[in-house]
Amino acid sequence: MNLSPPLGASSETAGPRRRRLIRRGVARPAQGRGRTVRRISLVLLFLVAQALFLSSHLFRLQEVQVRGNVRLTRTAILRQAALPQGSYLWALSPRRITRRLQGLREVRSAEVSLTIPGRVLLEVQERHPVLLVSGTQGTWFEVDAEGVLLGPSSGRQSLPRLKLATLEATQGRIDPTPIRLVLKAQQWLEPNLPAPATAYMLDETRSISVETRFLGTPVVIKVGPVQGMNYKMHVLRALTDRLKSEARPVVVIDLRYSSPVVRPLKPEPTPSPAA
Length: 275
Known about the structure:
Layout: H1 7-54, E1 63-67, H2 74-81, H3 94-101, E2 107-115, E3 119-126, E4 131-134, E5 141-143, E6 149-152, E7 161-164, H4 177-189, E8 199-202, E9 208-214, E10 217-224, H5 229-246, E11 250-254, E12 261-264
Parallel strand pairs: 1-3, 4-7, 7-8, 10-11
Antiparallel strand pairs: 2-3, 4-5, 5-6, 8-9, 9-10, 11-12
């Protein structure tokens, strides 16, 4: 028995199906290339628009604001920030600018902000001197609480003075421990001294002394370590009150021992009468 389809039916059904396959096979590559071209064109158009937008005056550096500076001048901060003239905001790195600003020894911290149209804000927090320090050479330098030397004394403000046996600085810094000790001792000493302190001293054993005046005479008060300051100040007040009542000037008051030691001022020798 022959199960093949009739010859007429085979040609009638095979023709349209073959034509549809041919049309589909020809149309697909052309449509794919068209979509690819459109996509590339859109991407290029977007990139061109972005380039035109980023190169507009909105992003070109127009103004630099500086805030927080007191000791430093605006010119010094701008020089350190090193912002290229006519640069674009998107080409600037706030992190790098911040690191450059922190390279100034007077700057404790810095913050950089970029805003449109073309504005850069440089905000600095400066270091503030808390003491004047000197070594054996006698030159006084301003120093902050972290031991950063801020330069020679400007004389613009009255600061406590600290004399060190040696003034050793590494990369513009000294050991901040003596500074903390003196600032702590100052809170106890200043209300109890007979006169304002002229200078503080710290030896190799971290023993504190203070120069002041008593009954019009320079006096050195040897305090020792900062432990037991409440008792030492009680002894100092009682001792100076007694010496005042006796009108006895002294040159040294030593509080480092359980019983204070006082060195009186030696009276000047009276000249012998002429023969």
